[in-house]
Specification:
mainly alpha, 5 helices
Amino acid sequence: MHCNPLIAAATFARLAWSQRAFDPQAPLPNLSSRESEILVLVGRGRSNKEIARQLAISVATVKNHMHSILQKLQVNRAAQTAARLRGSHAA
């Protein structure tokens, strides 16, 4: 399934937001366009090395973006982000 990275990121952000305790004051996380691209590739099962190669950036840069994504989405591991992203497509 192909999906615009911005739509996928927004969908995933909404899903992540709905999984935590409800706080009406808490805004949805704002992912950068690069973070959204990386999130889509993680959702497709790509490794950090594959993402780095595809986006022509270093693996360290991918890891930095992943750290930021994990913090913004309030999850602990990249596998959780990928699983939740896949789960949102199944619904």
